[in-house]
Specification:
This protein is α/β, with parallel strands linked by helices. The chain is built from 51 helices and 19 strands. The longest helix is centred in the first third of the chain and has 24 residues. The radius of gyration is 41 Å and the shape is flat.
């Protein structure tokens, strides 16, 4: 039988989905359908990656897709709904139908019986929250709550809360239920969906548990049933009917049944309210009532929350049990059928939503009733729009004569006029002496009949108006032959906005915009005929061809001609840009396209390029220039620099390109090109043989415009320029002239500076090497510019922790500069300073100090004691002293640098502030928290004013202040500041920038100090993974992060994991930095701590002694790291009750710390505290008490009375 309803053609024609969680619900829902569309096989398919199985059909006037969840629960529902939405993008509503547990509410107006219908007005996830020892707290934030239904759903539900709407719905449900029951009989279903009797509707008191009454030999208890009891019926367990709850409505129904009035007895009720959705089956009367009271819930189910969050949803279910321990399956079939009936009744009252139409100028252009023009890029179907308008006009105004005039060139324009004269038999048309152009114009103006001229493809402004400097008004211009009168109209199609404006003399402008994705898919489906590709493939094709109709039509033609699939066509496109160009160059035929128009998209564009080049040379050059840059965000300053023309000339030239829709101006004075135009323009340049000419122009322009990327002030500019610099460098050069190589090397150096600032040492290294090789080849190995590139390469090595490579190259640069420029040349001294930094990072303090002092002294002599370079060398020496724990020397020199810097540069100069920050760090290392904090705050506030709150220097100072807070156990302040720094760095520098990773590591450390070990672990793991990708697995920063994570494991008592990770760190540090590097030794000390936590005393002691001795040799007996390792050995002795050895070593560490740091330093106080504990365990109570009181009092003074 043929359906009277139109069969849907596409998946997008489906607006309704019916979702079921159980097979029995699915069977009942299927009977509610009026007909199915896929009885002879699925015609609609599904999206890629969608594993759902669909059944499609009709309910009332709605095309409906039916789907069964693979599993119960909201996770399965959410996954299914997400896939459903990807395949059926036009869905407006999902109806989740089936069975549920009702909240009985006896003795109230909301008394629910089995078989009643429940419709969701809202939904709450009652099991989403936190379980505390004494209570469960549901999450109740905006992010955790499910939103209210859409406006049209709320309007529909509102009608069901009126007496009229509710009664109508109930009557219709009853009618549909009878139909479903009849269909079940006809189709031979296993169940006929008959309603059980009222006697089978039992509600027990909430606290009366479904369990064995005789508990001998089973696992039942007063609070619950055994597994056998759960699966047994109330009859089998002999549940006491004396605990049944009396309900007035049920008693009435029982009486009606007994009187034989089955119709009234079986009347159902419909309730609209809040439903509870959770992942657990509710089988407890007491829990049911408590949760229902808390959240005003009328029923419980398990899938609604999953669907609700993906698609606008209504839950329509029928009650099959009371969500208590006595629940059984007797009512499930009837409830499923009732719910399906209710879903159908509801959908019959749900109005279809008309698909939104996005005209983008198409509808406007096709329906405009007057003189107009349709402008836009040539690929956007202007001709088709004009045809649509003509067809409409012929229907509504058949008396109007329509004349089609081809206006692509003067010959075709003349031919069109000649054709009009001949077909209309205009007097004089056959006279060879008569000019046909004025003849037709005069006839049209004098003819009384109404007419319309379609002036098609009027793209050439000069053709109609002559050149801009032509004032003669000669007959070469065609605009004078366009008729003007009250009974005629002109419709112009053009891809040149400027031509359109002139031809229509300012009449209404209709621009044809970009096609929507739905329009693209519709176009492709019509072109592909019987082929039914997946929507995902059509979407991908539309996006790749930028929703350009002519390109889409060409693609469809190619697919049909070659009998391939859309996916195979996409594969051809994806091979390379050249493959895409080749496809765009394929000729094709399409109905309605001018036979003299080029038959390939690429050729059509090239005609436009030639016209632009011919009429406006500057516009042609700009288009050529832009095609060799990235196709997005071309800076206007590039165009100005390249053209060298006036602002007025540039505006005119760009106006031409915008008029032809070849470029689009974006905010921020930049321009975008369509990617396809970009590619075709490149092919056009190759065809013209001018690619190399414009490649040289782009290289020169970009190299001159790209600033040094190492300065913060240039970061925004470098970020915008980088894609274009990469595009230029990727162009095939085929041999460069000397000036080109110089430009390329300059560009690479400046780009490398930017990448180094962004923490990308690996790519910066590659660029530096290329720049260095170019300069060596052009200028020689000893040229100053070559040495600059080598110096940049040293920085790239150091950024990656490649200290040996950095040292080797630094030495080479230094020796060459000494020979070439002199030992005291500023460039030489800078190289020596870099080498000193490399030594320092390798823990080679003596060499670093020796070279640092040499640089400082030579700078003082050569440049002066207060020269910025001298002050920088002094600052580097401060760092070297601090690294050795020589705080007094570091402080003394740091103060000197600050004073000189304030005098020379000013108190708010970044270099002065950096020196102050270094001094604050020195204070912090000495435990002088108040001084450190005061100075850190001053630095931070000045940086904010001077450079801005998000400048890297400001953020570094904020991070230092957070460390000061952490050292004082002010965890909340430290955490707040850490998070602020981290988030700002993520935004400003990127989530994987080394500085961002340091912030994340510091935050993880703060979490560890607070005992929030799970958060610390999670963040630490994240830092390590990003560091491995960004910096490499063996980068010192990555290894440090791994060591921090091992400490977190240590604090969690996960000794084996901590040991494994520390071993890995130690081995890598040994290979990377050497066995005696401080970082290696620190890791070994941490491993020793892990051993003694596992009672592996001998291993711990042996390793600790090794570390101590190496530290003594490497750094000295009084270095902080040496003393820390000795303190760890003390703890190991204490754990083994080796009190005399512990006391002896503890006294030594304490006295050294007193001398080194001061009596009130935190580390000194820790040693004193340890000694007090040693005294206590030796029974030396008075000495222990005296020392403990001394430590407590000093801590109060130093850190405050509330310090932990």
């Amino acid at each position: 039988m043929t359906s009277s309803h139109p069969r849907p053609r596409y998946r997008e024609d489906f607006q309704i989905a019916v979702v079921c969680a159980l097979p029995l619900e699915y069977d009942a829902a299927a009977l509610a359908f009026d007909e199915f569309w896929d009885e002879d096989g699925d015609k609609f398919g599904r999206a890629s990656g969608d594993h759902n199985i669909y059944k499609t059909g009709r309910i009332g006037s709605h095309n409906v897709v039916l789907v069964l969840l693979p599993n119960i629960g909201k996770a399965s529902a959410a996954s299914t709904a997400a896939s459903l939405r990807s395949s059926y993008a036009g869905l407006r509503l999902a109806v989740l139908t089936g069975i549920c547990g009702g909240v009985p509410s006896p003795g109230t107006d909301n008394e629910i019986l089995l078989g009643d219908v429940v419709i969701s007005k809202s939904i709450v996830q009652f099991d989403l929250g936190q379980q505390y020892p004494d209570k469960f707290t549901r999450k109740d934030t905006v992010d955790d709550n499910l939103g209210r239904p859409s406006k049209d759903v709320r309007s529909l539900l509102a009608t069901f809360q009126t007496h009229l709407g509710l009664n109508d719905l109930r009557c219709r449900i009853t009618q549909i239920l009878a139909q479903i029951q009849q269909k079940a009989v006809e189709k031979g279903y296993r169940t006929l969906y008959n309603r059980p009797t009222a006697a089978e509707d039992s509600l027990f008191e909430p606290g009366y548990i479904h369990r064995h009454r005789d508990r001998a030999g089973c696992g039942c208890s007063e609070s619950g049933a055994c597994e056998t009891g759960h699966n047994a019926s109330c009859e089998e367990l002999q549940c006491d009917v004396g605990h049944l709850v009396s309900r007035k409505r049920l008693e009435t129904m029982t009486k009606l049944e007994q009187e034989g009035d089955a119709g009234k007895a079986q009347e159902l009720q419909v309730f609209v309210g809040r439903m509870g959705s959770g992942d657990t089956v509710m089988k407890s009367g007491e829990h049911r009532d408590r949760i229902a009271r808390e959240h005003h819930i009328i029923a419980f189910e398990m899938e609604g929350a999953g669907v609700w969050d993906e698609i606008p949803c209504i839950i329509v279910k029928a009650v099959c049990d009371y969500a208590d321990s006595h629940k059984n399956k007797k009512w499930q079939d009837f409830a499923a059928a009732t719910a399906a009936s209710a879903a159908k009744a509801l959908l019959e009252r749900y109005a279809l939503t008309n698909k939104p139409t996005t005209t983008n100028g198409r509808q406007d252009a096709a329906s405009y009733r007057g003189s107009a023009r349709s402008s836009g890029a040539l690929w956007l179907g202007r001709c088709r729009i004009a045809l649509a308008y003509v067809y409409w006009l012929q229907e509504v105004c058949p008396e109007v004569s329509v004349f089609w005039v081809h206006a692509s060139n003067s010959e075709r324009f003349r031919q069109s006029y000649t054709s009009i004269a001949q077909r209309c038999r205009i007097t004089g048309h056959d006279d060879p002496k008569t000019s046909v152009l004025p003849l037709v114009k005069t006839w049209l103006q004098e003819e009384c009949r109404r007419w319309l001229i379609i002036l098609d493809s009027a793209d050439d402004t000069e053709l109609f108006f002559g050149q801009s400097d032509n004032a003669s008004g000669n007959d070469a211009t065609l605009a004078q032959f366009l008729p003007e009168c009250s009974h005629g109209a002109l419709l112009v199609t053009t891809r040149n906005k400027q031509a359109g404006v002139k031809l229509t003399k300012g009449t209404h402008l209709i621009e044809v915009g970009r096609m929507t994705e739905d329009e693209c898919q519709d176009l492709l489906r019509k072109r592909l005929g019987d082929i039914s590709p997946p929507s995902d493939d059509l979407s991908t094709l539309s996006k790749r061809l930028e929703c350009l109709p002519l390109a889409l039509a060409q693609a469809a033609a190619f697919i049909q001609e070659n009998s391939i699939t859309v996916q195979e066509y996409l594969d051809l496109q994806g091979e390379s840009d050249q493959s895409l160009i080749d496809l765009l160059s394929e000729e094709f035929e399409t109905i309605g396209r001018d036979s003299e128009t080029p038959r390939a998209v690429a050729q059509t564009w090239m005609l436009s390029f030639q016209q632009i080049q011919r009429q406006h040379a500057l516009a042609g050059r700009l288009l050529s220039f832009m095609s060799l840059l990235d196709y997005q965000g071309v800076p206007k300053e590039f165009l100005s620099h390249y053209s060298g023309c006036s602002k007025f000339e540039l505006v005119k030239a760009l106006g031409i390109l915008k008029a032809f829709s070849l470029v689009v101006e974006e905010k921020g004075s930049s321009f975008d090109m369509h990617r396809l135009v970009h590619l075709v323009t490149r092919k056009w340049l190759a065809k013209q043989g001018t690619t190399d000419e414009f490649r040289k122009h782009t290289l020169l322009t970009v190299s001159q415009m790209f600033p040094w990327g190492g300065d913060f002030e240039n970061q925004m500019t470098c970020s915008a320029y980088l894609p274009h610099a990469n595009a230029v460098l990727q162009l095939e050069d085929g041999g460069l002239e000397v000036w080109e190589e110089e430009a390329k090397a300059l560009l690479l150096d400046n780009m490398a500076g930017y990448l180094l600032f962004k923490g990308n040492g690996k790519d910066a290294e590659k660029m530096c090497k290329i720049a260095m090789e170019i300069k060596r080849r052009v200028w020689g190995a000893e040229h100053p510019s070559t040495l600059t590139s080598m110096g940049n390469l040293v920085s790239a090595y150091m950024a990656q922790g490649q200290w040996e490579e950095a040292e080797k190259l630094s030495v080479q640069v230094i020796e060459t500069r000494k020979t070439k420029l002199g030992a005291d040349d500023p460039e030489t001294l800078t190289s020596m300073g870099n080498l000193a930094s490399a030594f320092c990072n390798q823990g080679r303090w003596e060499e670093a100090e020796k070279l640092g002092v040499q640089v400082m002294e030579m700078s003082k002599t050569k440049l002066g004691a207060d020269h910025p370079d001298t002050l920088t060398s002094m600052n580097n020496l401060v760092w070297t002293y601090s690294s050795q724990g020589r705080w007094e020397e570091a402080e003394k020199l740091g103060v000197q640098v600050i004073e000189m810097s304030e005098t020379k540069l000013g108190a708010d100069h970044p270099d002065t502030l950096t020196s102050m920050a270094n001094l604050a760090s020195t204070y912090m290392e000495q435990g002088r928290w108040e001084e450190a904090e005061k100075l850190s705050v001053q630095v931070m506030e000045t940086f904010k004013i001077k450079l801005g709150a998000d400048h890297p220097f400001t953020l570094t100072s904020m991070g230092n202040l957070a460390s000061t807070y952490r050292g004082q156990a002010r965890w909340e302040e430290a955490e707040k500041l850490n998070i602020q720094v981290m988030e700002t760095r993520k935004t400003k520098l990127g989530a994987d920038h080394p500085d961002t990773l340091i912030s994340m590591d510091n935050l993880a450390l703060t979490y560890t100090k607070q005992g929030r070990l799970e958060e610390a672990e999670k963040l630490g793991m994240q830092v390590i993974e990003i560091s491995k990708t960004k910096l490499g697995a063996d980068h010192p920063s990555t290894l440090t992060s791994m060591g921090n994570l091992a400490s977190t494991f240590w604090n969690q008592g996960r000794w084996e994991e901590a040991e494994k990770l520390i071993m890995q760190v130690i081995e890598t540090f040994k290979t990377k930095l050497g066995e005696d590097h401080p970082s290696t030794l620190t890791s070994m000390a941490n491993l020793a701590s892990t051993y003694w936590k596992q009672d592996r005393w001998e291993e711990a002691e042996k390793l600790s002694v090794q570390v101590i001795e190496t530290f003594k040799t490497k750094l000295g007996e009084d270095h902080p790291s040496t003393l820390t390792s000795m303190a760890n050995l003390i703890l190991s002795y204490m754990q083994q009750d080796r009190w005399e050895e512990a006391e002896k070593l503890c006294v030594q560490v304490m006295e050294t710390r007193k001398t080194k740091f001061g009596v009130d330093h935190p580390e000194t106080l820790t040693s004193m505290d340890n000694l007090a504990e040693i005294f206590w365990n030796q029974g030396r109570w008075e000495e222990a008490e005296k020392l403990a009181v001394q430590v407590m009092e000093m801590n109060k003074i130093k850190l405050g009375a509330d310090y932990p």
